[in-house]
Amino acid sequence: MIHLTKISKQHGSQILFSNASLQILPGIRIGLVGANGTGKTTIFRLITGEEEADGGEISYSKKIKTGYFSQNVGEMSGGSALLEVMSAATDVIILGEKMKEMEALMAKPMDETAMQILLEKYGETAEEFENLGGYDLETRAQTVLTGLGIGPSDYTRPVESFSGGWKMRIALAKILTISPDVLLLDEPTNHLDMESIIWLENWLVNDFKGALLMTCHDHDFMNKVVSKIVEVANHTTTTYGGNYDFYILDREVRMKQLVASHRRQQEMLAKEENFIARFKARVSHAAQVQSRIKKLEKIERIKLPEQQRIIKFEFSPPPRSGDDVVFLDGLTKTWETPDSDPKTVFNNIAGLINRQDKIAVVGVNGAGKSTFLKILAQKTTPTQGIARIGANVKIGYFSQHSMDILDSKKTIFETIQEALPLAGIGIIRNLCGAFLFSGDDVEKRISQLSGGEKSRVVLATLLGQPINFLILDEPTNHLDIQSREVLLHALKQFTGTIVLVSHDRHFLRCLVDLVFEIDGGKMIAYKGDYEYYLSKTGRDHKKI
């Protein structure tokens, strides 16, 4: 369907691709992986024609429909959410308008021959309209919107009244509704909650019949949806047959084989070069020396890829808190709003958070998870009841708002140094390195950083401090898979108490040992890990 053959591409002095190839065949499901800046988004832009390759060839099958979802959704205005989604099916809309025009003509008097010609044309148009799914376009759009968390009560809301995150969902719904032959998804799970991620996962696996190429930071989502991985690294692409877990294992095997081949080649080259150096001055060995020189010139040298450097930082043990970290009793929170009736998000919650608990707070969007965390972090007060913090508890709180209060003029190094005033330069640099800021990166100003980089800065400042109670609201948002693994490793080593909200199921599965579910204003504690919670509630999302 789409073939990228021996592509080369350069942005200024930065070489992205040299002799890179990629095939998108009918029905294939490909996950595109690689470090930030390696060119994943450029591949999408090359396919859609937004950028041109410097060399190589891009070919397409005839009459294929391509849908591309990116993080840049553009402007949306002038219609409802439902009409905005339906507007993506321009071919269907044009045919529908033609049918209406012909229906209006048929209502007027005309001779029999003209009517016969018009009826035939109308029949052909109606057949094409039906084949393109015109008759159920509105139903499809409603189904997709609902699946992505925008229910019937919001179908008619003006699209400009939605926030940026919800507009991303509308933009994604537009692409899914047209159900293209080739679907290009650049981080589709960003801004989605757990329920919407699971709906999208099911839709891609069970309902979508076309080919898929996507990037995604959600480990579980990649495993469920894709059957092939294309890694973008070292100016080229490498294909692995299998899901994300298979890719990780196979890449390690291939790397070991490559390192072994490189070592053997280096030993051979050293031996040949030593022979040339020893005998190049001897006339009796001239023919042999020349032969070996020519042999070396023809050998294709094995190059080892640059490995992303990950520094393992040993976090200092936090001070010991009391055994009872938070005591909850009769906890109720009602938000007063000037434009509507007061809203009670939860009522009469009771429970106990113990030292070294690692707790996931789960529930549908709007259940009150973030509000619950704000009360624990003492960022808001309960309307009724108590959330009593225990003895010697030192709280560290992360939310998306944490990134907004960073000083944009400071560098990464200065920001972390300010949070850890007693730490030496070496310790601060190692902490920066543990969160993937190495070398000159630490001198970048906060204003230059992406959302994911800002998240890593805040998390580094938290984990570097003597905190024994971490409260984390969506800490994995904006983080790529590698950054999530770095954070997961750090939190698994953390010996204090953790309460977090996250929609990354792999993250929860590997970390937590308790689950608090907020549902219908009540909270239920499940005294087991995330798998235990899924099995007890029947929400085992592995079976899709």
Structure overview:
With 544 residues, the chain is of the alpha/beta class. It has 18 helices and 18 strands. The strands form four sheets. The protein has a six-stranded mixed beta sheet, with helices on both faces. It has a six-stranded mixed beta sheet with strand order 14-15-16-12-17-18, with helices on both faces. The longest helix has 36 residues, at 244-279. 34% of the residues are buried. The mean pLDDT is 89.
Summarize the entry for a quick read:
The chain is α/β, with parallel strands linked by helices. Helix content is 40%, strand content 22%.
Secondary-structure map:
Elements lengths: L1 E10 L2 E11 L4 E5 L6 H9 L6 E6 L5 E4 L11 H6 L3 H17 L5 H20 L5 H11 L16 H14 L4 E5 L7 H14 L3 E5 L3 H7 L2 E6 L2 E6 L2 H36 L6 H13 L25 E12 L7 E12 L3 E5 L6 H8 L7 E6 L5 E4 L1 H5 L7 H8 L5 H10 L16 H13 L5 E5 L7 H13 L3 E5 L3 H7 L2 E6 L2 E5 L3 H8 L7
Parallel strand pairs: 3-7, 3-8, 5-6, 6-7, 12-16, 12-17, 14-15, 15-16
Antiparallel strand pairs: 1-2, 1-4, 8-9, 10-11, 10-13, 17-18
- Order the strands across the largest sheet as they lie in space: 5-6-7-3-8-9
Return the CATH class of the domain at 324-537. Answer: Alpha Beta
The unreliable regions are none
Question: From the alpha-carbon coordinates, what is the Rg to the nearest angstrom?
Answer: 29 Å
**Strand count:** 18
Mean pLDDT: 89
Query: Beta fraction of the residues?
Result: 15-25%
Q: How would you sum up the major sheet?
A: 6 strands, mixed
Secondary-structure arrangement, i.e. CATH architecture of the domain at 324-537: 3-Layer(aba) Sandwich
- What is the CATH H-level superfamily of the domain at 324-537? P-loop containing nucleotide triphosphate hydrolases
Report the span from N to C terminus: 28 Å
Portion of residues within helices: 40-55%
The outline comes out as flat
Instruction: Count helical runs.
Output: 18
